[in-house]
Amino acid sequence: MYGLARVWPIPQSHIVMFIAYCFEKSYSPSSITTYISGLSFFHKINGWYSISDVFVVSKILKGCRRLRPVVDKRAPITLSMLKQSCAVVPVVSNSIFESMLFKALFSVAYFGLFRVSELVFTNNGNMSISVVDIRFDSDQKHVVLCLRTSKTNQSGKQTYLKLPCESDDAICPVCNLKIYMRYRPLTSGQLFIHENGSLVTRYQFSAVLRKSLSHSGFNCDIYKSHSFRIGRATQLASMGISDDKIMSMGRWQSTAYLTSIRDTAL
Fold first, then answer.
1. What CA–CA distances, in Å, run from 85 to 42, 51, 102, 158, 214?
2. Which residue of 1, 3, 30, 225 is 20 to 30 Å from 119, comparing CA positions?
3. Hey, how many other C-beta atoms are within 10 angstroms of the C-beta on 33?
4. CA separation for the pair 96, 106 (Å, rounded)
5. What was the pLDDT predicted at 261?
């Protein structure tokens, strides 16, 4: 468009103009940063300078984020909302098995601070929890889930999550998992599957969640699958749980977890 020479490595002045162009075209700061990261990676594998390490580039990207901040509009699913959603799952589900499946999914997602990609099939290639990754303690009051990979753990280092029984059986992850496992098809692979053995997908998870919330009278536009994680983190913070503990429970590697804390009455 501007007649710039196609030169490798890319001149820093061209990088600056590219960022400005993207910003003027209303690209989000995260998208611009992703493009620069891709160009920087190509530079580094060819032995050229790292674009991301250039001072002026990092400052311009920071300016983009400051001038066009992204507000996370996802609202937290509270404990009472979880209870209502689980209560109406049998109404919006196609079968008794489906209601058992999604009640287990919702309660585990909330109390385990799970990302949806850790529980169901997604197209990003991450391995969700397998049926061999679950066991109940001898006292039957705790369930242990083995998380082999996650967004912040790509190395395959196993993380064990121990979820206790809750006083309310309707939303208790241990109780709901016991019921689901009693009727789950005897097949290997992903933990959460349909009665015919097919995998539960992110789309299906979100669709049933949306139906459950809508049936309960909530605004579906502000509640997403990640709202379980946001809701539980917010609840823990309101209970006075320490930052380090919340980070550990949610597998956060930094204070990024603070973006999940909402100022809301639980």
1. 46, 47, 10, 31, 9
2. 30
3. 19
4. 16
5. 65
Identity of the amino acid at 165: C
Lookup result for tokens 């530079």: 43
Across all residues in the chain, what is the average pLDDT?
89
Instruction: Report pLDDT for 48.
Output: 95
Q: Which residues have CB under 8 Å from 7's CB, separation 6+?
A: 14
Report CA 39 to chain centroid distance, whole Å. Answer: 27
Q: Is the pLDDT of residue 226 over 60?
A: yes
* 59-68, 104-113, 228-237, 247-256: least confident range: 247-256
Q: Say whether pLDDT at 124 is over 80.
A: no
Asked if the model's pLDDT at residue 151 lies above 90, the reply is no
How many angstroms separate the CA atoms of 180 and 164, rounded? 17
Distances (CA, A) of 206 to 96, 160, 177: 19, 25, 19
Residue/partner pairs of 198-205 with CB below 8 Å, 24 or more apart: 199/120, 199/121, 200/101, 200/105, 200/119, 200/120, 200/121, 201/120, 201/121, 201/122, 202/116, 202/117, 202/120, 202/121, 202/122, 204/120, 205/102, 205/105, 205/116, 205/119, 205/120
